[in-house]
Amino acid sequence: MKVSDILGVKGNAVTTIRPEAKISTVVRRLKLEGIGAMVVTEGSVEDSPQVVGIISERDIVRGLADEGAELLEKQVLDLMTSPVKTCTMDANIKDIMAVMTRRRIRHLPVVEESRLVGIISIGDVVKNRLEEVELEADVLRDAYIASH
Q1: Pairing state of beta strands 16-17 and 107-112?
Q2: CB 36 within 8 A of CB 42
Q3: Cα separation, 36 vs 74, whole angstroms
Q4: Which residues of 80-98 are buried (b: 16+ CB within 10 A; e: fewer)?
Q5: Which residues have C-beta within 8 Å of that of residue 1, sequence separation ≥ 6?
Q6: Could you tell me if 81 and 54 are in contact, meaning their C-beta atoms sit under 8 angstroms apart?
């Protein structure tokens, strides 16, 4: 199973934000869109914006613990994780699961030829793995029933 299989079901929509945006803007957009992270990009849409970082709820909570409410007036650039770990459409889901677990990453932007083409979350990966396990169990159950 590949990242492209997940994006084929989930879609390629990615919520992005600019590095100069305020943290308060990120907080509002995360809540409004019901997501846990945003990819930070620079450049115009025509020139395929470049991924320069990622900012998550976890980053914001840690920042608030360190800096208090003043954090909300800072820029994304001050808090984002950079460089960001990315993957490609051809990446194997089991490999991605291992990377996400080992590095404690919950979101991976998907990049092809320096172009942002999607994002996968640990939830997407777990859902995919559960579906695979259920399919395997069904096949084994059917094979067992057929043999008896």
Answers
A1: unpaired
A2: no
A3: 19
A4: bbeebebbebebebeebee
A5: 92, 93, 94, 128, 132
A6: yes
- pLDDT, one tens digit per residue, over 17-43 is 999 999 999 999 999 999 999 999 997
Closest CA to 58 of 33, 96, 26, 83: 26
Torsion angle of alpha carbons 13, 60, 121, 4, nearest 10°?
A: 40
What is the dihedral sign for C-alpha 125, 91, 35, 8? negative
- Going along the chain from its start, the domains and CATH numbers come out as 3-147 (3.10.580.10)
Tell me the whole-structure pTM to 2 decimals.
0.84
| Residue located via tokens 């695979």 | 132
